[in-house]
Design a protein that fits this description.
Length: 748
């Protein structure tokens, strides 16, 4: 047998590594082969050497950590097997290995720096606790914090030790210690109400009074007393068996059958509406606990108004026989030549009768193609057209005034939006005037028998009279101008008439001769109407002017009509001034009311206020009302369906009074709750009134609405109130207000 030794030597490049055999630069493998006959050739050496090789890459920069740093310089590349060390910032505690290694092109997980805890004074006050051992600096993650309850509060010791966990502390909460022989809140009998809001009641001093709800009666004493930590036997509120009186009457309806004087519980009556009235609700009403359930309502029918339909340019689409019942649908249509405005949907022509009222739709005149505006009117002519619009091809006729003759066609035609050329009315040259008019106590000086256009005639007065007015008149268009008057020299006027809200300018004389005049002036903000001058004629004064009153806006009338002023007015609004109103938010003009009716003139101190109606909400509500000292828990939206609700919550230490939820009912929110303020003890008021607190635990930041605080007088002082027993008194916090009792010094 021959033995052969085969020595194999391998050398690795620097960028390769050997798996499972260690980190070697050279590896020697020894292979043996045995043969029985040395003369035989060496058999093929069968060995299977399987070594796995893998090319690897370096690691990049190590990852950063929150609240910590890498110790030393950070490189751009690290070879496999390299490591870095981490360190946390001050007061942060390292969790995990501080080292991270480069393995298989990736870094092992770095450590985590746990945040410290910071004590919160507000949270400790709220939970009635304080630190047992004063802590210098911050509290590290994992450290145990020991708290203790404040004086007057208690908690098992095991619950007062809390660990700091990643910057957070779960504060324990201490509760008020019980007083000796005191009682907890009293048991409230079913169907009763009690006047106590305190959470603790003293032995032998506390008495609470019980009152039964409506329709229930008391069985037993109406008070409970606190005795040795327990309440005396509570009374019971048992239901009263009450009969009902006669059932309520309803408008536009009757009760079927006879009406009795008294009905036993469970009895019922039936209602029936008058003709054409529709019953809304149950026809039956039941006697329950001495009270009748709500009777039905008889809804009024509607009667169509011809005037309202004419005013709104509409008519009924289908003739209705008889009355229109509540809830019935009435279909209207626009009259010929009218249509709905582009912003109005055709469905608004179908209207429901609602409790005797109909909201009439409104139609506007159709636009006509190639129509013309009112025609131009020639001077000294008259025209027979009063229309504001004329169709293409329409003709109007022109007629000249008296003593004028027509030049051109006597008609104008509307053609493609424009009128044809208008004619002219020119004066007739041969028109003459008759004899000049006669006057009393005077006469015209005539020098002709015929007077042409432009001729003039002069007048003179008899002796003892003088001329008032123009001394000559002229002939024009066949007519004389107004002649003068002849008045006596001796006729005088007395003082001029006084006017309301105005005065005569200058002094007033006892007598005025014929032809004299005075001037009037109105008071501030009053507008003068008519001529400001009055003349003395034949012993009488001509009519004086009138001072028109200004207008004052009436807030009550505007509120009643759901309107407000669009533009703010400085000072008073004078007679004739235009006042522009607008509807308040959530209100609008009725469809039958023109927008121009929001502009109103002041007329002699009177304003005709327009009226706006509530917009139809269609059962939806706007955002709910906000409350003082509280918030809406849920997120708000722009509109709410009927039946929706929102929940309110009061700020800390505030007492919620009322229902915590508000509901949307037919577009209106039910009343929200009220958050009543807590009371704060005033040591200044206590000192001023010679008071001490009876209990140390009452010396707290806030006393809730309804809670009591007990005081007693300082030494050598006594309470002023004679009705108070001894020198102690309990005061109730009422909506943030404490009424402090007053103690005064005793006489020595």
């Amino acid at each position: 047998m021959a033995v052969f030794l085969l020595l194999l030597t391998y050398t690795m490049n620097a960028q390769y590594s050997v798996h499972d055999l260690g980190a070697l630069q050279q590896t020697v493998f020894l292979c043996l082969a045995m043969v029985s006959d040395p003369s035989e050739p060496i058999p093929a050496l069968l060995f299977d050497l399987r070594i796995s090789w893998e090319q690897t890459e370096n690691c990049g920069p190590p990852p950063n950590i929150t609240n910590g740093v890498i110790v030393g310089e950070v490189l751009a590349s690290y070879t496999p097997g390299s490591s870095v060390e981490y360190r946390c910032n001050e007061h942060h505690r390292l969790n995990g290995s501080k080292m991270s290694y480069c393995e298989k092109r990736a870094w092992s997980s770095p450590p985590v720096c746990m945040e410290p805890c910071i004590l919160n004074e507000d949270d400790m006050t709220k939970n009635h606790i304080e630190i047992k051992f004063k802590n210098e600096g911050k509290v590290f993650h994992g450290d145990l914090m020991e708290f203790m309850c404040k004086e007057g509060y208690d908690l098992p010791p095991s619950e007062l030790s809390v660990k700091c966990h990643r910057g957070e502390l779960k504060y324990p909460s201490c509760i008020r210690k019980e007083r000796r022989n005191g009682c907890p809140p009293p048991p409230i009998p079913v169907n009763s109400k009690i006047e106590s809001h305190s959470t603790f009641h003293d032995h032998d001093e506390e008495v609470v009074h019980i009152e039964c709800e409506r329709h229930f009666e008391l069985r037993g004493s109406d008070e409970m007393r606190c005795e040795h930590g327990e309440w005396t036997e509570p009374p019971k509120c048992v239901e009263q068996i009450e009969n009902c009186g006669p059932p309520p009457n309803i408008t536009n309806g009757v009760i079927v059958g006879g009406v009795l004087a008294s009905y036993t519980p469970g009895s019922s009556v039936e209602y029936r509406c008058n003709e054409h009235h529709r019953l809304n609700g149950s026809a039956m009403s039941y006697c329950e606990k001495g009270v009748w359930s709500s009777p039905p309502v008889c809804m009024e029918p509607c009667t169509l108004s011809e005037d309202d339909m004419t005013k709104n340019n509409i008519e009924v689409k289908f003739k209705n026989e008889g009355k229109v019942l509540h809830g019935d649908l009435i279909e209207f249509k626009c009259k010929e030549g009218y249509e709905l405005s582009p912003s109005t949907h055709w469905s608004e022509l179908s209207v429901k009768c609602h409790r005797g009222e109909v909201k009439y739709p409104f139609c506007i005149r159709k636009e006509r193609r190639n129509g013309c505006p009112p025609p131009p009117i020639p001077v000294n002519s008259k025209i027979e057209s009063h229309s504001t619009f004329h169709d293409h091809g329409e003709v109007v006729h022109i007629e000249c005034e008296r003593h004028f003759e027509l030049r051109g066609s006597d008609e104008m035609r509307c053609e493609h939006g424009e009128w044809t050329e208008p004619p002219k009315c020119v004066e007739e040259r041969r028109v003459t005037c008759e004899h000049p008019p006669s006057i009393e106590n005077g006469a015209p000086i005539q020098n002709s028998r015929a007077y042409s256009c432009g001729d003039k005639v002069e007048y003179h007065c008899e002796r003892g009279y003088h001329l008032i007015g123009p001394k000559e008149i002229s002939c024009h268009h066949g007519q004389w101008s107004s002649p003068p008057e002849c008045v006596e020299h001796s006729k005088h006027c007395g003082p001029p008439p006084s006017i309301t809200n105005g005065t005569v300018v200058g002094g007033v004389l006892e007598s005025y001769k014929h032809g004299d005049s005075v001037e009037y002036r109105c008071n501030e903000y009053y507008l003068l109407s008519g001529t400001k001058t009055s003349h003395c004629r034949k012993g009488e004064w001509s009519s004086p002017p009138v001072c028109m009153e200004p207008c004052t806006m009436n807030e009550d009338d505007m509120t009643k009509n759901n309107i407000e002023i669009k533009w703010k007015h400085e000072g008073k609004i004078l007679h004739g001034d235009l006042i522009e109103f607008k509807c308040k938010q959530g209100y609008e003009l009725s469809p039958s009311t023109l927008l121009s009716e929001l502009s109103v003139q002041c007329r002699r101190g009177q304003v005709k206020y327009p009226s706006c109606n509530r917009k139809e909400s269609k059962g939806r509500c706007a955002p709910p009302p906000l409350i003082k000292n509280g918030v809406i828990i849920s997120s708000t939206v722009t509109t709410y369906e009927t039946g929706s609700s929102v929940e309110y919550r009061c700020f800390e230490h505030h007492f919620l009074h009322g229902h915590k939820e508000a509901h949307c009912v037919e577009g209106i929110w039910t009343p929200p709750p009220v958050c009543l303020e807590p009371c704060t003890l005033s040591h200044h008021e206590m000192e001023k009134n010679n008071l001490h607190l009876k209990w140390h635990f009452d010396d707290r930041p806030f006393i809730l609405h309804g809670e009591y605080v007990e005081f007693h007088c300082k030494r050598d002082t006594f309470l002023v109130e004679s009705s108070v027993i001894r020198d102690e008194v309990r005061v109730k916090c009422d909506k943030g207000y404490l009424k402090y009792p007053r103690c005064v010094e005793r006489e020595r």
